[in-house]
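If I may wish for something, please walk me through the protein I am sending here so I can picture the backbone:
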Amino acid sequence: MTKFRPLSVLLVTTWAFTVCFAVWMMFGVTGIPIRAQLGLDAIQFGVLTATPVLTGAIFRLPLGIWTDRFGGRIIMLVLLLGCAVPLWVSAYATTLWQFLLLGLALGLVGASFSVGTPYVARFFPKEQRGFAMGVFGAGTVGAALNMFVAPWLIDAYGWQMVPRLYAVMLVVTAVIFWIFSAPDPGTGKPLASMRQQLVVLRDPHVWKYCQYYSIVFGGFTALSIWMPQYFTSEYGLSIAQAALLAACFALPAGIFRAFGGWLSDRFGAHNVTWWVLWIAWICLFLLSYPRTELTVHTVSGPASFGIALPVWFFAVLLFVLGIAFACGMASTFKYIGDDFAESMGAVSGIVGMAGGLGGFLLPIMFGALLDRIGLNSSCFMLLYGIVWVSLILNYLTEVRRAPVMGESLGAPATQSSPRT
């Protein structure tokens, strides 16, 4: 039994994270009928969908520290059972402030990543931890699971059935998790104080990795929430059709995250991140172009034609973008593992929190831009600009090694940086 315990812990914890991530992304689909019911504008819809992401981001760091202190098994169990209550109650909400308040409470499930990552890693030797964390990180496929399950429930029983079923899933998952998990072998060891753990914030590399993760994970989270309503608004699709196509973006992030970890091990975090940013930049440039009608005055008279992405090509670009973001998530944590091996818990918590905050702010900014300029593709325009900043930062700090973030020119290269 002991021989298979690490595998059992890995599988059951990955399943728990998958369910948590589906709950975390719930408002991305249920928010569409809720928006119609409450008559919300675009920015109010952005706030509604982003609210759970806020608490999931903020609590990543403290829950990661509590996991080191009390053990991942206990913290994950409390998280699953505790969040089932506000999730069930949200089915009876009738006003925006009620949805926002309950969204803040149930959003704690988003912090399950910082609980499961150190918990799973402790059951595997160092040479197998990359694989274990890659498998666990694949639980982000819960975003795609939500897009398959929630539309069917809405069509069959109404949006209120989604939080009810998800609450039951959390309770059932808690029972299964407790049966097949094991006590955390990392508990009982002396821990550094909060102040000692946060001293890594003085290192400029931490802030650079925060910026990277805020786009690859924050962008993934924000678009997973935003895409179902985008397809309904831009292409006039039903909720079920929109969610199915949005899954073309969400699904690769889970499946290809482990692949991104393998690429980072083989070719280095810098090389993977560099090409991820370029691929994302190209995809976002194409996705940003709004539907356009042009009239050209020829010698034979006016000639009109339109420029627009067909829905199938749009979905293909989203699929490629999802793969790029998935590999970028893995390469960012490869950076952290190489550069901060002795303080990985604190740094991964800080970087994860930055990614979650990106996922919170971006949907609100999407809504504000949509209300302001009236273009559905404005969300991709914003991400295009952020990726461009990331490319410049990567070029200056790793390709040219310019000291733009307080680094010393004479400092030794990190393991994950390219050799020059």
Observations:
- Confidence is low (pLDDT under 50) at residues 409-420.
- The first strand starts at residue 292 and ends at 298.
- The longest helix spans residues 204-235.
- The chain has one domain: 2-399.
